[in-house]
């Protein structure tokens, strides 16, 4: 008489677990939580653009002018200089806004690239 192998009954007990294993393979895996620290885009703007733009110097008081034409020329020169300072301030604001927009776009692109892809049924 030959002894029967005992491995056959053990395999028969594991057979009902096969569908359970297949089901577990289809369930979504837990995703690793990836925390990305916020980027402070304002830190990338140079301090020279954050500073106030100084205004033009006021012309001297009318008491120092005997000639009204010279006084008018001084005030016109002030107006032109003040307009130039306004143009400079507007240029600084546009530059600051462009830097922040590029930084935020780059940050959004990085966040999108690092987000885990959702898998359908844990397979795809």
Write a brief structural summary.
This protein has 124 residues and is an all-alpha fold. 56% of the residues lie in helices and 0% in strands. It contains four helices and no strands.
Task: Outline the fold blueprint.
Elements: H1 7-14, H2 17-26, H3 47-50, H4 68-114
Quantity of strands, as a count: 0
Give a quick account of the main beta sheet: strands, pairing sense, barrel closure: none
Q: What's the alpha carbon Rg, rounded to whole Å?
A: 37 Å
Low-pLDDT segments:
none
The helix-and-strand class reads: mainly alpha
Shape: rod-shaped
Residues in helix, % = 55-70%
Mean pLDDT: 78
Helix count equals 4
As a percent range, the share of strand residues is: under 5%
Q: Could you tell me how far the N terminus lies from the C terminus, measured between alpha carbons in angstroms? A: 53 Å
Order of secondary-structure elements: HHHH
Verbal overview:
Helix content is 56%, strand content 0%. It has 124 residues and is mainly alpha-helical. The protein has a domain of 86 residues. The chain is rod-shaped.
